[in-house]
């Protein structure tokens, strides 16, 4: 009884058929007829051009790189308020377009009285002062847009980049799903300090005045408030999800994540962010060594990139010079089904090729290549762009150059790993077979962390081998670099909605 | 020429048809015949039972709640090494099972010589000492497993929970995709300090000895090394992605994310984690007020929960008492297509109902309900579990109880918001129409942050309204609470692979 009395609204959705109004992308994909009925569509004005008795505007809702051309006939009062950036709701009809450049247009007939059939309407939801609006129609510099990061998604390129991220992520999900993987959430906060992958951010100690928050409703048992460390031990932001993924792979066998990672590196380059997203995968119980790992990565990338939506990719490459056009062709070529498998060479072979090149061109590189030394960016660039002319897997690096967890090859010198180098991007993926032999791993860890294995901090990692360890492999791919490769974006700061780097964090 | 000479391996995948070997889940879904050919399957031994000339083991690779029954005939030497937890590769045949409890079994015939057709094989990939293995077959306490978080995914319940997370996330992705949303990555590191949503973690200042890392290959411009703040200003871990999502929604109109959030709250409850994942969505240009927001959330939840895989949900609810069975029935009922829309009531109506209840039962609550006061957990519990008996939306709370960004109703007292309360879970979702009127928002922000709007820190948020502001709405849902609701998991620490809370962060 009380229920009936106190409940005002039992409306609610017929959820089976729930659907928000169509987006402009959906409208553009729907059929039109000259006598289409009147509908309502909302969005922001991207541009407007007024003539005596007619006005043309491009309307966008961010759902597509393509805007909706709106044609205002009769030029009523409402059209005056339509300025670049304003949010509007229009009533009109989606009809075939007689003009060039688009199949469809949205006809808003303002010459008719409101009561008449098919009368158009213009309703300004939010105005935008054209004098003050920071996103003017002319080209805006990259730096200017970084300074206005809360508004820069309103530009065509940044919006296309964000949609491209969404598409790539969906394609990744489809590929991994087909291969029997489980998507998992591994922790951001960890006691591990970087695993040698670079500087990590550390969580500050709690201030002594930090209040012990205990909301009455939670019937909370407050933790000791005198602890300076919130977690009773130092906490860092993770630089990689690999070790935690490995723990899950000893149960679920095939796991992956696309998660944020953090590096407190002060180097300012177009390839590094302090906060970035990484695709990481680990899988166990399969065989085939480093070649099988490369097979997986190549199949994944080809499938993911081939499925990227052409409209957004086109929008991102638009206006590039001849060199840009050539890069795009090379990208399409690299992932096409017809093309040969990507080239694979060992580190040893790569160094030999570099040395041969230096022999013929003594001034070729700033750093001399030699076996046992890190491959520099200039070396990788030459290998991918000049020697191979496409993506190249470089495998089996010297053990001394790589982290403790990579599987040692029988030669006693190298490990079963690879870097995938891509023209104009550099290292896109790094991966390896993981050392599954407990005794070999333990020896390597003692060498790296000391005889107490870093005060036992990594004992858990050894446990994974001790109890039913199985052959496994994995890799990590910088998601912003992938976005940059597919979209022809030269700086990772334009491959993520809100970039963070040393000295810079807006919003 | 050089290319030919230096490249050793041009193998690589035929990527169009790339496929890892089938998982046990895939095998169990494939057809069997009595004369099936010999194949190889790998996994971990979950249990083994030995008889004189035959042994039975359950093999898992974590791909399914259901294991593969392996039958060893002939009982060779290899079977002795098969202990709980060991990783093995078996050669045998997938045949129809004559036994009860499974359709198929994996027959490993060890009685035949290796060279014979269909000869079975057992290969131990990694042994596991049954005396030392921490994951013994008997029931292990929740606390014990939390202490062994690197191994606890090997238990049926935690593995099922992780797979359930994967499924729910996929269903979420499908739902939002159908509604025209774009998945976006909003930042974890932010200058915003909590937005009133609770205590935030702060990034420590860089130590003065912090090296300025500048890898030679990056041609890096090092950032000023004297800065104590890496980003030249204090950085916090985000408590919510809402404000950044709103910025993107003014371009892409429909955006969502499933991302980590952080709260440095010391209260220790079964409903709170220091690091958790939140589904957050914002969409613009649509109408309908708070009821439309509830419609969306209800449609989303019904669709996402209905699509959860029965095998994993069954595994999680297994062994519950009668009360648990009743809860599961209530869950299925709540999301079934046949059921009425979920009840909606205003905060004012909810308080009146609570007051009526107190009038009849003076000792009903610890805290007296009254208009203008926060609804306590005990109140929400009664409303959802006793009054309504199902999920209930409570709408239009007093403005003074809610954050500055919620849209003010015309009554001058309340805001257009809702909380979704679910039996045995509590608050699962919170959302609102956002205040799109620049002047109303600015007034509210001055009241909250002072006349300078927090030294201008939130000016960007006002900008979003100033330049083409549009009606918009959004919500946030704690992902671990959703997992708990669907899986009948009482403590959020068992709803995430690696839980973190005050005083506790393993690995």
Automatic annotation (TrEMBL), chains A, B:
Aminoacyl-transfer RNA synthetases class-II family profile domain: residues covered: 129-497
A Pfam short name: tRNA_anti-codon
GO molecular function, a single term: asparagine-tRNA ligase activity
UniProt keyword terms in alphabetical order: Aminoacyl-tRNA synthetase, ATP-binding, Ligase, Nucleotide-binding, Protein biosynthesis
GO process terms (BP): asparaginyl-tRNA aminoacylation
GO cellular component: mitochondrion
The EC number(s) this enzyme carries: 6.1.1.22
Keyword Protein biosynthesis among UniProt keywords: yes
Source species, domain of life: Eukaryota
Cross-referenced PANTHER family: ASPARAGINE--TRNA LIGASE, MITOCHONDRIAL-RELATED (PTHR22594:SF34), ASPARTYL/LYSYL-TRNA SYNTHETASE (PTHR22594)
Family the UniProt entry places it in: Belongs to the class-II aminoacyl-tRNA synthetase family.
Name listed for the protein in its UniProt record: asparagine--tRNA ligase
Species this protein is from: Asterophora parasitica
């Amino acid at each position: 009884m009380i229920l009936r009395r106190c409940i005002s609204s039992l409306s609610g959705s017929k959820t089976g058929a729930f659907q928000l109004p169509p987006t402009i992308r959906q409208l553009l994909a729907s059929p039109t007829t000259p006598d289409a009925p009147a509908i309502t569509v909302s969005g922001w004005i991207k541009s407007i051009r007024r003539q005596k008795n007619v006005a043309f505007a491009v309307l966008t809702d961010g759902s597509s790189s393509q805007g909706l051309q709106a044609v205002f006939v009769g030029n009523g009062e409402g059209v005056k308020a339509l300025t670049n950036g304003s949010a509007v709701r229009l009533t009109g009809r989606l009809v075939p377009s007689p003009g060039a450049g688009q199949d469809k247009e949205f006809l808003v007939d303002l010459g008719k009285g409101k009561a008449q059939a098919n009368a158009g309407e213009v309703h300004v939801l939010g105005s935008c002062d054209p004098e003050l609006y920071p996103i003017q129609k002319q080209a805006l510099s990259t730096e200017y847009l970084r300074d206005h990061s809360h508004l820069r998604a309103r530009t065509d390129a940044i919006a296309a980049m964000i949609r491209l991220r969404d598409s790539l992520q969906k394609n990744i999900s489809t590929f991994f799903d087909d291969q029997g993987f489980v998507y998992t959430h591994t922790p951001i906060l960890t006691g591990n300090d970087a695993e040698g992958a670079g500087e990590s951010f550390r969580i500050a100690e709690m201030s002594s005045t930090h209040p012990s928050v205990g909301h009455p409703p939670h019937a909370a048992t407050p933790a000791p408030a005198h602890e300076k460390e919130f977690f009773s031990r130092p906490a860092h932001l993770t630089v990689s999800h690999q070790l935690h993924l490995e723990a899950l792979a000893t149960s679920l066998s095939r796991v992956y994540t696309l998660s944020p990672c953090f590096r407190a590196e002060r180097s300012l380059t177009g390839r590094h962010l302090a906060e970035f997203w990484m695709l990481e995968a680990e899988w166990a119980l399969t065989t085939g060594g480093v070649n099988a790992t490369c097979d997986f990565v190549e199949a994944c990338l080809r499938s993911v990139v081939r499925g990227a939506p052409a409209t957004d990719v086109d929008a991102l490459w638009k206006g590039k010079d001849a060199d840009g056009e050539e890069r795009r062709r090379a990208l399409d070529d690299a992932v096409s089904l017809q093309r040969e498998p990507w080239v694979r060479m060992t580190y040893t072979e790569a160094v030999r090729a570099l040395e041969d090149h230096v022999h013929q061109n003594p001034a070729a590189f700033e750093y001399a290549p030699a076996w046992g030394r890190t491959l520099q960016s200039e070396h990788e660039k030459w290998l991918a762009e000049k020697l191979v002319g496409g993506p190249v897997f470089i495998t089996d690096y010297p053990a001394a150059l790589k982290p403790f967890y990579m599987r040692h090859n029988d030669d006693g010198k190298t490990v079963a790993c690879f870097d995938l180098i891509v023209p104009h991007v550099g290292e896109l993926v790094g991966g390896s077979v993981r050392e599954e032999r407990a005794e070999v791993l333990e020896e390597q860890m003692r060498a790296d962390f000391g005889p107490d294995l870093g005060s036992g901090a990594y004992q858990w990692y050894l446990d994974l081998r001790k109890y039913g360890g199985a052959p496994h492999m994995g890799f990590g791919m910088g998601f912003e670099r992938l976005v940059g490769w597919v979209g022809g974006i030269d700086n990772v700061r334009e491959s993520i909605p809100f970039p963070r780097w040393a000295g810079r964090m807006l919003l």
